[in-house]
Amino acid sequence: MPFTEALYRSFLCEAATAAACFVKKGLMRLLEPCTIRARTLEGRSTMPTKRTAAKKPPREKKKTKDSSICKNCVPARCCMYFSTEIDAPHNAKDCDDILWILAHRDVEIYTKRKRWYVMVKTPCRFFDPTRGCLIYPSRPRICRAHHPAECEFHEEYDFDLHFHSYEELARYFRLRPPK
């Protein structure tokens, strides 16, 4: 069966559904929870509420090469994946669940500072290679909060562990089973 765009979209839908199921079961939590989804999964109202907290002062712009960082980043690497924290494995069942996640295409698992993460390499559907972000004025909060000075692609590679394949992670679990 040839790998078509329709098949790829179907896979992404299945992966998103599986991730939502993991979040609901408590096997994975979102780093930056979406207001509506987080409230739905916790059984609360799906209508976002207004926050009355004091406004934060505007972020000071660092006088570095911030603007040139994004202009030279082609294609916008921060728009080509998302990553979220998952629970560290504590037993064989947890290891099996993480292996299941890594059995899917375009998924990687990494650890950083003793925390486990899943990275899904899928581009944002609103990113256009020639025009950039198609929803820039109304882009999500996570995108608005991302600042070029904090870009993870301009720092040293700092993952503690990084698993690109099912076999790599299975070998790691065989050599270092959770306690």
Helix-strand pattern: HHHEHEEEEHEH
Structural class: alpha+beta
General form:
elongated
Give the C-alpha Rg. 18 Å
**Helical percent range?**
25-40%
Helix segment tally: 6
* Overall residue-averaged pLDDT value: 73
What is the element layout, followed by pairings?
Elements: H1 5-25, H2 35-41, H3 66-71, E1 82-86, H4 92-102, E2 107-112, E3 115-120, E4 127-128, E5 132-133, H5 141-145, E6 161-163, H6 166-175
Antiparallel strand pairs: 1-3, 2-3, 2-6, 4-5
Helix pairs in contact: 4-6
Structure in words:
It is a single chain. The chain is built from 6 helices and 6 strands, in the order H-H-H-E-H-E-E-E-E-H-E-H. It has a domain at 80-175. The termini are far apart. The chain is α+β, with helices and mostly antiparallel strands and 179 residues long. Mean pLDDT is 73; it is low at 30-52 and 61-65. The chain is 34% helix and 13% strand. It has helices spanning 5-25, 35-41, 66-71, 92-102, 141-145, 166-175; strands at residues 82-86, 107-112, 115-120, 127-128, 132-133, 161-163. The protein is elongated. The strands form 2 sheets. The protein has a 4-stranded antiparallel β-sheet with strand order 1-3-2-6. Strands 4-5 form a two-stranded antiparallel ribbon. A hairpin with a 3-residue loop joins strand 4 and strand 5 (132-133).
